[in-house]
Amino acid sequence: MDEPSKRQVLRRGIYLLPNLLTTAALFAGFYAVVAAIDGHFERAAVAIFVAMLFDGLDGRVARMTHTESSFGKEYDSLSDMVSFGLAPAIVAYQWGVARIVEAVSETGQHGVLWSRLGWLATFFFAAAAALRLARFNARSASQDKRYFEGLPSPSAAALVASFIWFAFENELHAVLGLVTAFAVTAVAGALMVSRFPYWSFKQIDWRSPVRFLYFILLIVPFVIIPLDPPVALFTLFGVYSLSGPATWAWRKTRRRPARNLPGPS
User: Fold this and answer.
1) CATH topology for 14-200+217-254?
2) What b/e string do you get for 5-34 counting C-beta neighbours within 10 Å, with b at 16 or more?
3) N or C terminus: fewer CB in 10 A for the chain?
4) What is the pTM of this model?
């Protein structure tokens, strides 16, 4: 087979390695849903973080091996919707269902209101993730690569998953846990569809030398996360989630127009 024929076959095929990584991310998201349905909320939360790991690898591997394709981009987006849109919403709702039973038994109130609030908050999160991904795909070519417009769906999923993990391990009071979980889920969804600018970290040159202090700051998360994973992860992603509106508010206060940055209209 001559060289042009080989290229033609390659274009018609599916690149194996990056799409296997995307499939692994999809499987992790699917497993998170199954684990939550079975009541294993810690495993469900961990599975979402595993999905984040594979999701971060597939694009980088595709670029490193020059195996990027339109198929891979579409497949990655669909995988993200499952792993970072549906999975966190279902995990939060399933955990909330268990809390609803406790809330009803403790307060004597009917659980229909709590159930409806859960439906609204978690569906809003799933819909926001779909809108966020669609907007990203539509504007990716013209966007400033240094910043994301709105909270990225993996970060929003991590925020919800880490809180459910924390709440499950610490057995938060039924009513307090419900209110906080649904509030975190709804706020994460709202931040996804917002126009707040979030640092993408894409401008970092990992091959260039950096100051020793910066290196220490980069390794701090790897030191603190093993100490108490749910607390550390919720804190890290909580700070990142608030960085968008905080940056926008700071610029408004200082009256410094954000050049080339998306912002609330």
Assistant:
1) Four Helix Bundle (Hemerythrin (Met), subunit A) (1.20.120)
2) eeeeeeeeeebeebbebbebbbbbbbbbbe
3) C
4) 0.84
